[in-house]
Amino acid sequence: MHYRQLENYVPKDALPLIETWFSPFKIQLRITPNRKTKLGDYRKNGILHSISVNGNLSPEAFFFVLTHEFAHLKAYHDFHGKLILAHGKEWKETFSKLLIDSAYLYSTEIQPYILQHARKPKASVTADPGIAKNLLRNESGLPYLEDLPEGSLFYIGNKLLQKGKKRKIRYLCHEKNTGKKYLVSGLAQVNRVKE
């Protein structure tokens, strides 16, 4: 693998650590175009490990997702290929250690969120508001659903929804045209309708 291909995608000084992590393994790394449904992926095919990461992410977000996916590979290896849950205790333990070991590579503004996330890693970036808001910066300029007042109208895709009450971590929203109800993450970026 040519680690230099990552130079423009990861934080400055991250390449030596990535090389240390990756060198014992046969890894095919793919940098993919923006995918709406996932930021990265890990698969094992025979002796080859395949990791993909969206190339449109900021360097810190790219490195975080790369670390998340590498944790799958390392957990699989360290626990001798046993059937382990994708985001089970083995993966959480591995991901946590990798985050702590690499925290120094993140900016001082992001480091507290990385270390907090390392205490109790989540399967999804959006499940941790601190990581989602500070690492995956809102470069679109769209507001987060949680920042809109209750009753606000907004679009997600082509659906016109009205924000309802919060239920644990999601908001119960009603589609205006059909009356259907949806639970929507507070971290969803939405197009607000000006009233």
Q: Could you please describe the fold and organization of this structure?
A:
This is SprT-like domain-containing protein. It is a single chain. The chain is of the alpha+beta class. It folds into 2 domains: 4-136, Zincin-like, CATH 3.30.2010; 145-192. 29% of the residues lie in helices and 23% in strands. It has helices at residues 15-22, 59-78, 89-102, 111-119, 129-134; strands at 27-32, 40-45, 48-54, 153-156, 159-167, 170-175, 181-185, 191-192. Helix 2 packs across helix 3 and helix 3 (89-102) runs antiparallel to helix 4. The mean pLDDT is 91.
- How helix-rich are the residues, as a percent range? 25-40%
Output the CATH topology of the largest domain.
Zincin-like
State the order of secondary-structure elements, H for helix, E for strand.
HEEEHHHHEEEEE
CATH class of the largest domain: Alpha Beta
Provide the descriptors you would attach to this structure in a database record:
195 residues; alpha+beta; Zincin-like; 5-stranded antiparallel sheet; 3-stranded mixed sheet; 5 helices; 8 strands; 23% strand; elongated
Ordered list of secondary-structure elements with their pairings:
Elements: H1 15-22, E1 27-32, E2 40-45, E3 48-54, H2 59-78, H3 89-102, H4 111-119, H5 129-134, E4 153-156, E5 159-167, E6 170-175, E7 181-185, E8 191-192
Parallel strand pairs: 1-3
Antiparallel strand pairs: 2-3, 4-5, 4-8, 5-6, 6-7
